[in-house]
Design goal:
Blueprint (H helix, E strand, L loop, with lengths): L7 H10 L3 H18 L2 H17 L3 H15 L6 H4 L3 H10 L6 H20 L11 H11 L4 H8 L3 H15 L4 H10 L4
Amino acid sequence: MAETHQLPLSQARVHLARQDASAALAILEPLRRQAEAKGWQDERLKVLVLQSLAHAAHGEKDKALERLSEALALAEPGGFVRLFADEGQPMARLLSEAAPAGMMPAYVAKLLAACETEKQQRKDTTPLPLIEELSRRELEVLRLIAQGFSNREIGERLFLALVTVKGHNQRIFGKLQVRNRTEAVARARELGLL
């Protein structure tokens, strides 16, 4: 879906989820330059956050910290917290490396506290194992979701009406105890379904 609709940040996230940091970086670098050239500070901030994670995943710690430093400098005046905390443990690890480097210590401490709170909340709501198994058709739909296909594309591939695909999505989300496609894919991977 991200590829079909030209959503570069979403495309980069898909690549990161698939552990393809190189592909994510290839999308993010020109996007960052474009955001800088056009003065789109919010977009630039989002790109910098993802770039820092992509560089870290690619094993480029110095570049990751450099991009994180830029993101922190841009985000701190506006008091952005959720943007970092929503990235979960990969961001918490990166922030933990930024702290000893003396990078905006008060702000980094605030962000680390938010990441820890987020981690606690996720742990407190850790879903139980599947109560009801996914049907063969639900597994087919889930695999296509994981490949990034839209509901419409899934319907075309499986010869299903759009409303039927949406119904399968809701049953999949319910059985996996998640709220959206991203969580469904992550949960399915945890359970070894993908």
